[in-house]
Each structure stands twice: as C-alpha cells, then as structure tokens.
Amino acid sequence: MQDFIFYLKLGWEHIISLDALDHQLFILALIAVYAYNDFKKILILVTAFTIGHSITLALSSIDVLRVPSKWVEFLIPLTIVITALDNILMKGKQNNLMKVNYYLALIFGLIHGMGFANTARMMIAKEQSLFVPLLGFNIGLELGQIVLVIVILVILFFLLKLFKVNRKDWILFISSAVFALSLKMTLERWPF
C-alpha cells in the first residue's frame, strides 16, 4: 500500500505542482470551450488525456517506447499551441471543437506521457510489478486534473455569473494567453 500511495502522490504532484505548468496550460486550453454545466463531458475529456498519458508511460516503463527527451520537451508545448490555436480558429463551431477535443486529449496525452517516462523508467525498474506504480500514478494524475478542472470551473462560474463576462471573450482570452505562453515554451525548446 505504501508503494501505491507514493505513486499516487507522484501523479498528483505531476499535475498540481508549480513545475507542471505545461500540463496545467494544456488542461486549461482543453476545457476553455466548456461551461461549468459540462462537468461530465470534461471528466470524460480529462480521462481520455489520462488514458493516453498512461499508455505511453506504460510502454516507456517497459522500454518498448523511447523518444529523445529534447523532442518530447518540444512536442509537449507544441500540443498546447495546437489546442489553443484550435480554440481560436474554431471559435464559432463549439460543438465541432468539443468533439475534436476528445481526440486531441487522447492523442496529446500520448505525447505528454512521454514527458515523465524517463523518470518513471528509473523508478519503476526496481518494482516487481508495473501495475501498482502505474495505477497509483494515473489515479493521482486524474485526481489532480479533476481538482484543476474544478478550480477553473469555479473561476469561470464567477466570471460569467457575477462579472457578466461574455463566454466567447473568455474562450478567446484564455486561448490567446495559453497560445502565447506555450508558443514561447515551444520556441525555447526547439530541438534543432
């Protein structure tokens, strides 16, 4: 049980810590087009991300998949750029965008999962079974994402209801800010 709790905390910190800005920006861009009453859809969305994340984490842990870290560090913010840009370009087609986001979450989750793979490979290599570490880590990751989503939705609720912010303005503002920050991160991590 101690191993499970250790990896649960590790997964939690992987999304909640101050060093997890890339994951936090991705979640923010991914859910920016949803409203607080879309909570069930958002849960499915972040779970799709966790599934993608866990697949590459598992494949990397058993040494089936290896991608040079400089490419992973470049691709992670690039996924955020694409997600934010998608929000901006498809601003009038929210239903289509919401459908696309499920695929983006799963596919980009695969890329984000590679970001923790080297660390996981070193830590989990000593374990007799991958099941407990991966289960604990992914549950921690999922819980962290849910807490992050709740915080974002509470802020959105107050902005829309109390301050009467236009929802389209919210989407454009958040997506533009996330786009700018992640583009800077992408250019800083250019692998060539």
From TrEMBL:
Source domain of life: Bacteria
Keyword Transmembrane helix: yes
Organism, scientific name: Epilithonimonas vandammei
Name this polypeptide is given: HupE/UreJ family protein
Keywords on record: Membrane, Transmembrane, Transmembrane helix
Transmembrane regions: 15-35, 42-62, 74-90, 102-124, 144-163, 170-187
